[in-house]
Amino acid sequence: MHFQTESWGSYLPARSVGDPLERIERLARENAVVIFSISSCCMCHAIKRLFCGMGVNPTVHELDEDPRGKEMEKALMRLLGSSSAVPVVFIGGKLVGAMDRVMASHINGTLVPLLKDAGALWL
After folding, report:
1. Which of 115, 117, 119 is nearest to 54 (CA)?
2. What is the DSSP secondary structure assignment for residue 37, as one 8-state letter?
3. Phi and psi dihedrals of 60, rounded to 5?
4. What was the pLDDT predicted at 83?
5. From CA 102, how far away is CA 104, in angstroms rounded?
6. CA distances from 116 to 79, 110, 120 (A)
7. Which three-class secondary structure state does DSSP give residue 35?
8. CA distance 23 to 30
9. Positive or negative CA dihedral for 119, 20, 80, 82?
10. Helix (H, G, I), strand (E, B), or coil: what is residue 93?
11. Which residue in 111, 123, 102, 116 sits closest to 36, CA to CA?
C-alpha cells in the first residue's frame, strides 16, 4: 500500500493550490486506485484490507495527516452528496464511491474488471 500524506502544495501550479476538488481529481487521475481515508476509521481499514487482499496496491491518502485534509474531506462530502466522506475510492481516475458502492461492486463481480481496466490487477 502506498500512503500519500505529504502536502502537494509545492508540486501544484499556483492556481490549483487552494482548490481541494482539483487536488482530489489530480490524485485520482495519477494513480490506478486511490483511497481517501482517515487513519482511525474502521471502515477505511476494511476497504484498504479488501484491496490489499485482492493483490491491489492502492494509493492511500490519509486526510487526518494532511494539513488541508479537512478541506478535502468537505469536497468529498459534496462530491458524494453525503454526510460521511470516508472511505472514498477512485479507480482508473473515476469515482467508485464510498464503502457501500465498493462492496456492492465486489459482490456483484464488477470490481475486478474495473481494477483490470485501470491496470491495478493483472489476474
Report:
1. 115
2. E
3. -110, 125
4. 81
5. 5
6. 25, 10, 6
7. strand
8. 11
9. positive
10. coil
11. 102
Q: CA torsion 94→121→39→97, rounded to 10°? A: 30
Q: Each residue's pLDDT tens digit in the chain (123 positions)?
A: 555 544 333 333 444 456 999 999 999 999 999 999 999 999 999 999 999 999 999 999 999 999 999 999 999 999 998 888 799 999 999 999 999 999 999 999 999 999 999 999 986
List beta partners, residue 34: 59, 90
Collapse the DSSP code of 33 into the 3-class scheme (helix H, G, I; strand E, B; otherwise coil) and give the result: strand
Backbone angles phi, psi at 109, to 5 degrees: 85, 10
pLDDT at 42: 95
Environment class of 54 (CB within 10 Å of its CB; exposed 0-12, middle 13-18, buried 19+): middle
Strands 33-37 and 59-62, sheet pairing: parallel
Closest CA to 112 of 44, 59, 61, 53: 53
Instruction: Tell me the residue length of the chain.
Output: 123
Cell of 34: 486511490
